[in-house]
């Protein structure tokens, strides 16, 4: 038996479409499906903005590699906010975290935060599968110092993999109840989604939201 009812689970979902071949009609269909399912938001590429929907609109920044100059990430976030994005999911420079350069990491997150200030919600994608536990902690601490609202596991595009219960639990322990934790990447079943929530996630990035909510197996992000 599922421990979270479908409506409550849907309310945690960023219904996601980040395929590079996606069209505007694909994004519009995503928005219609999100409204039908009752998801918290949609998450689309910045080129899809502005987009009309009754749910929140999230977009990505520095996606998917994170190897963009901080001023470019900041400009992208500023433009997305101006085009109606309620939330921005930025990818960190993962190399900075792997090198232990957490002051530089904090600075780039802060640049994005200043470019897209509250009420825009800033989520920081740390690519947890590519990091050690110490690096995960350091990246989460840098995100909190820089004023982020959420830390997020993964882009879903890194060969190291996506979300894990271990990473989610570690991220939650690090940020306590001060920040949100978003699990994304490789979550393809209802059981996996609920396991991420049990580990500490309060937002989920899913592309197969309908299949997961109905207890099936999804594909993709």
Automatic annotation (TrEMBL):
Keywords: Cytoplasm, Lyase, Schiff base. Its EC number is 4.1.2.4. It holds the Pfam family DeoC. Pathway: Carbohydrate degradation; 2-deoxy-D-ribose 1-phosphate degradation; D-glyceraldehyde 3-phosphate and acetaldehyde from 2-deoxy-alpha-D-ribose 1-phosphate: step 2/2. Coiled coil: none annotated. InterPro entries: Aldolase_TIM, DeoC, DeoC/FbaB/LacD_aldolase, DeoC_typeI. It catalyses: 2-deoxy-D-ribose 5-phosphate = D-glyceraldehyde 3-phosphate + acetaldehyde. The keyword Lyase applies. It is found in: Cytoplasm. The active site is at residues 89, 152, 182. The keyword Lyase applies. HAMAP family: DeoC_type1. Belongs to the DeoC/FbaB aldolase family. DeoC type 1 subfamily. NCBIfam families: deoC. Catalyzes a reversible aldol reaction between acetaldehyde and D-glyceraldehyde 3-phosphate to generate 2-deoxy-D-ribose 5-phosphate. This is Deoxyribose-phosphate aldolase. It comes from Brachybacterium equifaecis. The lineage of its organism: Bacteria, Bacillati, Actinomycetota, Actinomycetes, Micrococcales.
């Amino acid at each position: 038996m599922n421990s979270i009812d479908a409506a409550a689970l849907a309310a945690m979902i960023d219904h996601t479409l980040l395929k590079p071949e996606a069209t505007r009609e694909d994004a519009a269909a995503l928005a219609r499906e999100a409204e039908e399912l009752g998801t918290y938001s949609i998450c689309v590429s910045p080129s899809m903005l502005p987009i009309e929907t009754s749910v929140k609109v999230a977009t990505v920044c520095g996606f998917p590699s994170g190897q963009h100059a901080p001023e470019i990430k900041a400009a992208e976030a500023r433009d997305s906010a101006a085009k109606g994005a309620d939330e921005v999911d930025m990818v960190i420079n993962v190399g900075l975290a792997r090198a232990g350069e957490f002051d530089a990491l904090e600075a780039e997150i802060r640049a994005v935060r200043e470019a897209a200030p509250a009420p825009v919600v800033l989520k920081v994608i740390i690519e947890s599968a590519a990091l050690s536990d110490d690096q995960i902690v350091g990246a989460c601490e840098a995100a909190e110092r820089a004023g982020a609202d959420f830390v997020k596991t993964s882009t879903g595009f890194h060969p190291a993999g996506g979300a894990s219960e271990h990473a989610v639990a570690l991220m939650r322990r690090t940020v306590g109840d001060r920040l949100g934790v978003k699990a994304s990447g490789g979550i393809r079943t209802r059981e996996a989604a609920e396991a991420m929530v049990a580990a500490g996630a309060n937002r989920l990035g899913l592309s197969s939201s309908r299949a997961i909510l109905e207890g099936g197996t999804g594909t993709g992000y």
